[in-house]
Automatic annotation (TrEMBL):
PANTHER family: INNER MEMBRANE PROTEIN, INNER MEMBRANE PROTEIN-RELATED
Positions of region (Disordered): 1-39
Transmembrane intervals: 62-81, 93-115, 437-456
Source organism per UniProt: Streptomyces griseoaurantiacus
Pfam families listed in its UniProt record: DUF445 (PF04286)
Claim: Iron-sulfur is one of the keywords in the record: no
Protein name according to UniProt: DUF445 domain-containing protein
């Protein structure tokens, strides 16, 4: 009976401590250690639901203790009755009551040892949750990492969800495609608005310059020119140039003759200079006219050979390639080129922003059509769904395998940051009611076991 009274006193002290902690919290005094992390706050603060659960635990404790007291009283009374000669039945009842007390006390010890030292005694392997909290957090993190963040589990779960099929069916709905298009347009417009033109221009200009400097352009130009000449693609350009040259000579004949006369020596007669100028103009006009009208003109052939030789030099001649590289560097270094890059970015940015804002712009219409087409293909074509599922699974597997340690450390660090006392109280509030049934069951099962053992022993003794 003294042990039973001591158990009741300990449980009453626990209830009073809980009420005091509640009063301190209601007065604004945070219980235990407080930190800035929200997980720690949530474990240190008892909500109304937690308080209701704690009241339920106290009621269950009272019920389990009352059952223990009941079997203790029954044991005392039946033992007295047996000594008083009340009959053989008292032995059976006393044996059942005695075993029920043993079972109740053993289960009380086991349940209490999870959360605190029974009777306040520092018995080894008791107060498991507060003393082993950090180790439990590490074990929980390892368990989650091994059983929930493994590649097979992630792939199997995502494959069962069928993201490709669901996403395809969702995107195939026009209203959903409109919504995604609007969100993408808003995000694009916001990103372009936040970006500073000077920063983008500097990055684009530096990227273009670096890429151009890193790659020699002469061989590529030579190959392109070689293909153009081989295909005769330059002949139209020659036709345009010769035709325009002919028209210019017809309109500016006097200018050509004046230029020739102005370059003549001063001692020659003027009429001779005029005759020479006229002759030069006529020959030049005849040459240009024949070159325009004769596809097989020797000058055209000479131009073809020149371009062919130049294409070969661009690819193989060291001096020619070096000259082209120097020219490239000079062109890229000019301020006009950088201004052109800046103006090009500004124009592209304004065009994209305008297209993103206009619901009927070609950009948004094409994005919407692409989303609808993608949704229909994902919903109707197994290969597309499998490809999308593979991408999603691959990305998820990469994340969990690459950052598994960081994910599990979130669990272990969070548990390590919890206050041991309040963590114990919160866990007990959530599972303590079910644990009290263990005490009740232990009392009942112990009583039945004791009765059975007593019956067997009496039968064997008879």
């Amino acid at each position: 009976m003294e042990v039973v009274e001591r158990v009741e006193r300990v449980e009453r002290d626990e209830g009073k401590a809980g009420e005091k902690a509640k009063g301190a919290r209601s007065a604004g005094a945070p219980p235990g250690r407080t930190t800035g992390a929200s997980p720690v706050r949530s474990m240190n603060v008892f909500s109304a639901a937690d308080e209701e659960k704690r009241r339920g635990v106290r009621r269950m404790k009272a019920g389990a203790t009352a059952l223990l007291l009941l079997v203790a009283v029954v044991y005392v009374l039946t033992t007295w009755a047996e000594h008083a000669g009340a009959g053989a039945w008292t032995g059976y009842v006393a044996a059942a009551a005695e075993a029920g007390m043993v079972g109740a006390l053993a289960d009380w010890f086991a349940v209490t040892a999870l959360f605190r030292h029974p009777l306040g005694l520092p018995i080894p392997h008791t107060a498991i949750i507060p003393t082993k909290k950090d180790q439990l957090g590490v074990s929980l993190g390892e368990f989650v990492g091994e059983n929930f963040l493994s590649e097979d589990v992630v792939r199997g779960r995502l494959r069962a969800v069928g993201i490709g099929s669901r996403l395809g069916a969702w995107l195939a709905v026009p209203e959903h495609a409109d919504r995604v298009t609007a969100e993408l347009a808003t995000a694009l417009r916001g990103a372009l608005t936040v970006l500073r033109d000077s920063d983008v221009q500097a990055v684009v200009g530096e990227a273009i310059t670096r890429r151009a400097n890193a790659q020699e352009i002469a061989p590529g130009m030579g190959k392109m020119l070689e293909r153009i000449v081989a295909d005769g693609g330059h002949r139209r350009s020659v036709d345009v140039i010769v035709s325009r040259a002919h028209d210019w000579l017809v309109l500016h004949g006097d200018s050509v003759m004046d230029a020739v006369q102005g370059g003549a020596p001063g001692w020659t007669p003027r009429f001779v200079d005029r005759k020479v100028g006229e002759r030069v103009y006529k020959e030049l006009l005849r040459f240009v006219t024949e070159m325009r009208d004769m596809p097989a003109h020797p000058a055209r052939g000479a131009l073809d050979r020149f371009l062919t030789d130049f294409a070969s030099d661009l690819q193989s001649d060291t001096e020619t390639r070096a000259r082209v590289e120097r020219l490239k560097g000079e062109v890229l270094g000019r301020g006009e080129v950088q201004d052109l890059i800046a103006s090009a970015w500004s124009a592209v940015r304004a065009m994209i922003v305008s297209a993103a804002e206009d619901e009927r712009s070609e950009l948004r219409l094409r994005v919407r059509a692409s989303l609808l087409s993608l949704g229909e293909r994902m919903a109707g074509e197994a290969k597309v769904r499998e490809k999308v599922d593979g991408w999603v699974e691959g990305a998820a597997v990469y994340v969990v395998t690459t950052y598994r340690r960081e994910i599990t450390s979130l669990i272990t660090d969070t548990v390590a940051g919890w206050d041991a006392e309040h963590t114990t109280r919160k866990i007990e509030a959530n599972i303590g009611r079910d644990l009290q049934f263990i005490r009740i069951n232990g009392t009942v099962v112990g009583s039945l076991a004791g009765l059975l053992i007593y019956m067997v022993s009496r039968a064997l003794g008879a």
